[in-house]
Structures are given as structure tokens and as C-alpha cells.
Amino acid sequence: MTLTTTTHLNFRGVARHALEFYQSVFGGELTVATYGDFGMPAGVPGADKVVFGKLTGEYGIRLMAYDIPGQDDEDASATAGSTRRENGVTTTDRTFFQSLDGGSIEEITRYWERLVEGAVIIEPLAASAWSAGFGMLTDRFGVTWVLGVTAE
């Protein structure tokens, strides 16, 4: 038996922009369907929003996203919660972080440099006691990413 897990991100009107951004970061194929594609009449507010979005990227990256019906808030950080580092401790009110592990610092740095555009850096990407590279950021869509080099 094979099981696969895919992160499904919920946005308030910016799912298409987020998926296009993640495609620019990870590459891959993007599939997007709107509420209008599934029968909502054209001209109805929200018909152009994403009801199903999926990014199938390189090396196993898979993300799904949709826009919460009736929500249209361009400022993702207003509803996503916050994460910060203080005195060596991560403090957050978010329900999850998205983790991305790679086999080398070069590989992780490549993704970090793309995700950091418009992001808030929580922990700069650097060597740590447990990894050749570890960093944490909240991207411009309110998703907190933890990037690290997998120990061999």
C-alpha cells in the first residue's frame, strides 16, 4: 500500500496568486478550476476564485489550495496568525508549519532564495546544532515554511 499526503492551503481570495508563486518556486504543473468552472454563474462575486488548485512540482512537491467562499482578503497575514523567535524559542499561534527538507544546503538554499521574496524571516537559513542548514520564514501568503537539510 502507498499513502501520500498533500498540504491543502485555504486562502481568502489569493489562492491563484499563491499557487502561481509556489509554481515559480518549485516548478511543476499547475491545475486550477474556479467556482465558475463548476457552475457558478459568471458575474456572481467569487465566480473567478479557486475552488480546486493543485501544484504537482518537481521532486515530490505537491500543494493544493482553494479560496474560502465569500472571503476576499488580500492581506493573508491578517488571518494566518503569527510566528516569531524570542530567546531561542519559537512562539506561534498557527496550527501548522510547512516543512521542506533537502539533501544539501545548496538544494535548500535554492528554494529559500525563492520563498523569501516578500517573506518575514523568523530564523535565517544557517547551520544549526541539528542540521547543516535550517531556516524558518512566513511567506507573503501567510504560510510558515521550515526548511532544513536532512541529516545523513
Please describe the structure with a list of short key phrases separated by commas or semicolons.
18% helix; alpha+beta; globular; 4-stranded mixed β-sheet; Signal recognition particle alu RNA binding heterodimer, srp9/1; 2 domains; 152 residues; single chain; 3 helices
Tell me what portion of residues adopts beta-strand conformation.
Answer: 35-45%
What low-confidence regions span 5 or more consecutive residues with pLDDT below 50? none
Give a quick account of the main beta sheet: strands, pairing sense, barrel closure.
4 strands, mixed
The tally of structural domains comes to 2
Q: Record the strand order, biggest sheet.
A: 1-4-3-2
Total number of strands: 10
Q: Into which percent range does the helicity of residues fall?
A: 10-25%
Please give the count of helices.
Answer: 3
Q: Taking all residues together, what is the mean pLDDT?
A: 90
Please name the CATH topology of the largest domain: Signal recognition particle alu RNA binding heterodimer, srp9/1
Write the layout of secondary structure elements.
Layout: E1 7-11, H1 15-26, E2 29-34, E3 50-56, E4 62-67, H2 77-80, E5 83-86, E6 89-92, E7 98-102, H3 105-115, E8 120-126, E9 134-138, E10 144-149
Parallel strand pairs: 1-4, 7-10
Antiparallel strand pairs: 2-3, 3-4, 5-6, 8-9, 9-10
